[in-house]
Amino acid sequence: MGDLVFLSASYQTGAVLLQVKGNQVKPLWSSDEVMSNHYATSVYHNGYLYGFHGRQEYGPSLRCVELKTGKVQWNMDQFKAGTVTLADNTLIVLKEDGELILAAASPKEFRPSARAQVLSGTVRSYPALADGYLYARNQRTLVCVSLRK
Q: Is the pLDDT score of 39 beyond 90?
């Protein structure tokens, strides 16, 4: 994001925000308590990161973090694992249990506008979004969900 690079990993690694200027790299903050992504990458929108914090097997939380400070804005404890995709101003969250959740990307609160169980079993692959359609799969089933208004 501009001259900023955000890196995150699980397994007691945590996250770091780096500022890159020329051949100089300056750490701005780092912590294992801010955004420790296990297998799903966070998304960035208007100065904030949205993603899953914590390991999948321990019931990670979904949270919003201010990029420049690392300050947690909101946190949904024990949300379970999943993926986050950003489309316009909307977070498209596909949970590991197959629940699809849409919510505005807001640093003030997480307020779902739509929820649906679109798959059963375990869903770990990232969905694909094309022309208003979301394609998602588990190990045996592929679904196409219209997200058009």
A: no
The C-alpha atoms of residue 131 and residue 134 are separated, in whole angstroms, by: 9
* Sheet of strand 128-130, all strands in order from the earlier edge strand to the far edge: 128-130, 133-137, 142-146
What is the per-residue pLDDT across 64-73, written as a single tens digit (0 to 9) for each? Answer: 999 999 999 9
For residue 13, what are the CA distances in angstroms to 31, 55, 97?
8, 11, 26
Confidence of residue 57 (pLDDT cuts 50, 70, 90): confident
Residue 55 has a pLDDT of 82
The span from the first CA to the last CA of the chain, in angstroms, equals 30
8 Å CB contact between 81 and 52: yes
Helix, strand or coil for residue 1? coil
Token pair in block for residue 12: 């007691």
Domains annotated for the chain, with CATH where assigned, are: 4-146 (2.40.128.630)
Could you tell me the sign of the dihedral formed by the alpha carbons of 84, 43, 41, 10, in that order? Answer: negative
CB 48 within 8 A of CB 63: no
